[in-house]
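Structure tokens please, single chain.
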Amino acid sequence: NTYVTDLDFTWGRLNKDGEQEDFYRSVTVTLTPANFDALRRRIDASNLAVPADTRFTGGIVADVYTGEFVKGVDVLVKDGLVAAVVPEGIGEARETVDLQGKTLLPAFIDAHVHIESAMLVPERFAELVVPHGTSAVVADPHEIANVLGTVGLDFMLDASEGLPLDIRFQLPSCVPATPFEHAGAVLDAAALEPYWDRKRVLGLGEVMNIPGVLGHDPDLAAKLLHAQKRRRPIDGHAPGILHEARSATAAAGITTDHECSTLEEMRESLARGMKVIIREGSAAKNLRTLIQGVTPRNSRRCMFCSDDVNPADVERLGHMEKHLRMAVEAGVDPMTAVQMATLNAAEHFGLPGGAIAPGKPADFAVVEDVTTFRVAETWHRGELVAKDGKLTKPIRTPIQPEAVLSRVKLQPVGLETFRLPVPSGEANVIGIVPHEIVTKAEVRTVATDAKGNFDASLNPGLVKLAVLERHHALGTVGLGILSGYVAAGALMEGAVATTIAHDSHNIVCAGGSDADMLAAVRALEALGGGMVVVKRGEVVASLALPAGGLMSFEPADAVARGVAAVLRAAEEAFHLGEGLEPVMTLAFLALPVIPELRLTDLGLFDVRAWSHVGTDRGA
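Here you go.
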């Protein structure tokens, strides 16, 4: 019953010391009647010797290899793969799909996403994005890994198996993101070693610790070398890093950057051989700026990603089709935009899809036109999985392992927890930048109470910010002052708190009074993780996120409604600042790898100096 059994081979070479360097690991090939027959059927179907399963006809087909939109052709599908693209009416098929003049595109690929930021477990995330024409995502699970370590990695790998969405993973490189905070876990190079050969693991996730790269951190160097030895892609994260430092990131083997926010950063990345992943998420919106830097000469080195997006935004604006629509509105040629959303990512990450050609998965997005990119149908492996914005059949009920259920562990908190002395009256302040996740370091003269403590009620336009360690009940609390969260001259009579706080995911809370902040944190503790909005001491909205305090097991539309309700409550309760999403913006304020000022559970952090600083400038 077996033609060839256990054929092991290794492609490699000898290094200068005469030691073998493997390009690829040993592979066992077993040729059985089943897989031999499958290969034979594919060859015969492409040769039109046997009938195809499905014929797609009557539409326009995007050929991303030649850069043409082709009319007068049919796409034949056999066993979930494209068998052939032929003139209309050629060959036989058991079923015909009439596209009725619509355009058949390769299904879309999100080149960099944190599924956890959508607040959905993988099964529910698939429910969210598949109706929008997405067939594959490159996910970095460093959010859940920072909370649960390898337990989180195992959960994401298991939960994403067998979905109508091809979820591939980049192993998280920075757990925790820096040594200047407490996360729920620590993943060193040794802890990641067993995962390199796991199914659907691609390479190394975004390397955020750029000072660690430049300073030759041994553990980070080991992770980089493990990926390079295997010829795996390494994602980057280098906001504001220019000139020699950006050259050093490229020399370290980092192959992409999704943190470019200026055309200068984009040009420097491309000039150093890196690829640029253009991001348009819920908090960080860089597409309108960076799309101006896309040219016919460099477009094949550019991709699209969402990075961090909430489900309410996806339901309202779309997923990757939003990027396509915005790119075309900005003047990008439609075919160029389609390549950036499909083929470019597939080729860079070695994904099987990204094109409509023989042997490629029959993963299609049927769109009304290449201006609005409204998705009429999504096909995955030759099966219709979504139509008119709805799944054609339910995705399986999510698994809910006890090990991933959220537990918020805090030392007892009281009003004194939130007291922030600024006796000099001059403070370092985190300034929000509208529509961005970078911040500005500001110096403000602030009013204090009789004991020299910062009081937000005496400082219109400013609020207090707190980050509380919530994984091991260590009792560490960082306090700071934030501008731009409410409008200039406004007071915040309440608080917003969440266990989503990139990347260590401690509790982050912004408020106008210590009493409101205390009420929000206690409500979050009772909830077991999620997000809450407090108005004058009363909880007016909340959403539970039981999977690590980051994700819900509920259906995507229910979570989208819950998120929308929380955001609406915050917007109605407070006069918020320009260009921010009240929860996602808050979540990024604890990420100490993005300039300029951040707040961790260990205090105010100056990313430029790579060290903690005091809030009180006179201390």
